[in-house]
Amino acid sequence: xxxxxxxxxxxxxxxxxxxxxxxxxxxxxxxxxxxxxxxxxxxxxxxxxxxxxxxxxxxxxxxxxxxxxxxxxxxxxxxxxxxxxxxxxxxxxxxxxxxxxxxxxxxxxxxxxxxxxxxxxxxxxxxxxxxxxxxxxxxxxxxxxxxxxxxxxxxxxxxxxxxxxxxxxxxxxxxxxxxxxxxxxxxxxxxxxxxxxxxxxxxxxxxxxxxxxxxxxxxxxxxx
Length: 224
Ligand code: ADP
Ligand code: ADP
Ligand code: ZN
Fold this sequence. Notes:
8 strands; about 15% strand; single chain
């Protein structure tokens, strides 16, 4: 099964993708994670992307399409994938269609995580991640069960992203509305768009996603 999770920064894409990775054996493909790894490694792509990411803008289509094309060619992706943070522009969506067609792959569902902008600054500025395994947490909405200890791996070190500050979040939300939201009607016209309530509690969002994937409830939830 191949999915796209679509929603603004802080919508819960990464949180839910990690859960689906565990429950369904799908591979999470996060262009944000891939770009951060490139920045950390100091590669040519990383050097080009760093300033744009810190300012809350979008990295060029050329760069992210090349990254995804490489990743989609790897054998583990055949198990099924969840795209998290890609595509983000109409040009990326078209490039994805071409890549999938060349490989005989198709998208099963594009799932919009519907959220209110008003909460997104709180979501993003409270976000932190386990340095060892990448599990995501939140200062208020999703604390580790034991303070200072990762639920998943028992790690004690956590990181925060340089771009998770209030100013940058606003630029990222603007970029979402200007460049990514137009993908909703695009996928709706292809008949693959579904939606879940991203404002609900994390477990409830997972339940709604599982219902979409199970098929039955997806008809009732088909976006209109
Ligand atoms: P995205 O990948 O869409 O940018 P994340 O999954 O990283 O978003 O979630 C952003 C922050 O909000 C994280 O700190 C996460 O723990 C928290 N979060 C995710 N989903 C919910 C939810 N449904 N309710 C409350 N907080 C959430
Ligand atoms: P979030 O879901 O919290 O916005 P991501 O981790 O998906 O964060 O992305 C972080 C940053 O990486 C974005 O603000 C952007 O600069 C860059 N980025 C990630 N994916 C893409 C993409 N598909 N196209 C362009 N830029 C991207
Ligand atoms: Zn961990």
